[in-house]
Write a structure and sequence with these properties.
The structure is a single chain. This protein has 161 residues and is mainly alpha-helical. The chain has one domain. It contains six helices and no strands. α1 crosses α5 and α4 packs parallel to α6. The longest helix is centred in the last third of the chain and has 28 residues. The protein starts with 5 loop residues before the first helix and ends with a helix.
Amino acid sequence: MGHGPVRLTECLADLGNMQVALPVLGFALVLALVRGARRVPLLAVLAMAAVPALIVPLKEWIARPGPLTEAAGYYPSGHAATAAVAYGAAALVTAPCAQRSKRSWMMPVAAVLLTAATGIGLLLRGYHWPLDVLAGWCLGGLLLVALSWTSGRSRWRQPPK
């Protein structure tokens, strides 16, 4: 099928599955809710819900075949977009918690590494063309920019504690 060690590349590709990415985001949301955040976790849920709402129609409209199959619906990569939004939103949601720590850089770095690992796995397994993954990341990036912008605006409106 693809290239590289099968178990490793399959594991990396699976980082973009909803069954893997959503619990990570869910844990970050619970942490933020426990710490008193309300609006930002809701916005993160909306961003994550936007992934399939945007990806599925795009896949049907473009109908691009995959690298190892004639079946259509591979562009953009839903797994790449899911990884980008879930791990990126988890980093954004936990950012206020991490600001109190000297290790505040760890969550964004982990989000980037997990998202990149997902893309590498998808490519090495032969599930997607490189542009499929790049398009998924771009879509995820746009959703994260919107989340960051709206969550930043919501923090401006909150009264000081």
